[in-house]
């Protein structure tokens, strides 16, 4: 009985801590970001795949992703792009071998700039492969460390002249309309699509663009959510 009491007191004084996120390795040192008001931007169709907390996570250095078994130990490119194209960053990381939450260190020297963007003013994408790869593929949902895995996910899209954009999951037959961004300078993206949540395992998503009813090439990608 005395041993049991001592053990219980030990647990009260020393609560079990949740596992800390493992930090990814930054391969593109020094950290690369730019602020160029007159820059001419040409970008990708998929500009961001993120939760609502990812934008604040950049300036707080709390950017996190969930690493599943297929992505453990692989390389990713983290891009942050403002809607007006003035701010951009592009950095190369190696994910930890552990299949859990990973911290992507974001050592920005432009905290004031990052804090000045409004909602939907900054898109974050964590894409598989190195930063020279431009084709859409697998994206890890960018979020904040310890964020709820069931949070909605936003996909920022550069329509490249499209008048309508849709998102489809699964077999691609059920299209949901994406919203046009009608405020601000829309240099790098002009639509956003919302998913209620994304599971930890890969989820197939298709972006469908139309220009006055005429379909443009579809973009197929796989998303990995923030956790179980």
What does this structure look like?
The chain is mainly beta. It has one domain. Helix content is 11%, strand content 37%. It contains three helices and 19 strands. The strands form three sheets. Strands 2, 3, 6, 7, 9, 10, 13, 14, 17, 18 and 19 form an eleven-stranded mixed sheet that branches.
Which consecutive residue ranges, at least 5 long each, have pLDDT under 50? 1-13
> Approximately what portion of the residues adopt beta-strand conformation?
35-45%
The overall strand count is 19
Order of helices and strands: HEEEEHEEEEHEEEEEEEEEEE
Shape: globular
Q: Main sheet?
A: 11 strands, mixed
Radius of gyration: 19 Å
Average residue-wise pLDDT:
87
Quick recap of the structure?
With 228 residues, the protein is mostly beta strands. It is 11% helix and 37% strand.
Name a few traits of the molecule.
228 residues, mainly beta, 4-stranded mixed β-sheet, 3 helices, disordered N terminus
List the helices and strands and how they pair.
Elements lengths: L1 H12 L8 E2 L1 E2 L6 E3 L10 E5 L3 H7 L2 E4 L8 E8 L4 E8 L6 E3 L7 H5 L6 E7 L9 E3 L2 E2 L8 E5 L6 E6 L5 E3 L1 E2 L10 E5 L7 E9 L2 E2 L3 E6 L4
Parallel strand pairs: 1-8, 10-19
Antiparallel strand pairs: 2-7, 3-7, 4-12, 5-8, 5-11, 6-7, 6-9, 9-10, 12-16, 13-14, 13-17, 15-16, 17-18, 17-19
């Amino acid at each position: 009985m005395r041993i049991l009491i001592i053990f219980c007191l030990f647990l009260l004084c020393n609560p079990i801590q949740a596992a800390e996120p493992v930090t990814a390795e930054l391969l593109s040192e020094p950290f690369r970001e730019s602020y160029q008001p007159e820059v001419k931007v040409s970008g990708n169709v998929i500009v961001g795949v993120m939760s609502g907390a990812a934008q604040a996570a950049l300036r707080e250095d709390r950017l996190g992703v969930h690493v599943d078994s297929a992505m453990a130990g692989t390389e990713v490119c983290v891009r942050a792009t403002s809607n007006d194209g003035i701010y951009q960053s592009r950095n190369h990381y190696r994910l930890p071998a552990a299949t859990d939450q990973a911290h992507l260190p974001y050592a920005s020297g432009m905290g004031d700039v990052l804090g000045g963007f409004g909602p939907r003013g900054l898109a974050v994408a964590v894409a598989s492969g190195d930063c020279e790869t431009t084709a859409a593929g697998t994206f890890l949902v960018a979020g904040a460390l310890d964020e709820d895995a069931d949070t909605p996910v936003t996909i920022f899209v550069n329509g490249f002249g499209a008048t309508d954009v849709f998102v489809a999951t699964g077999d691609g037959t059920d299209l949901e309309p994406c919203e046009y961004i009608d405020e601000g300078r829309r240099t790098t993206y002009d639509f956003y699509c919302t998913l209620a949540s994304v599971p930890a395992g890969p989820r197939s998503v298709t972006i469908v663009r139309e220009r006055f009813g005429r379909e443009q090439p579809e973009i197929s990608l796989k998303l990995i959510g923030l956790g179980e």
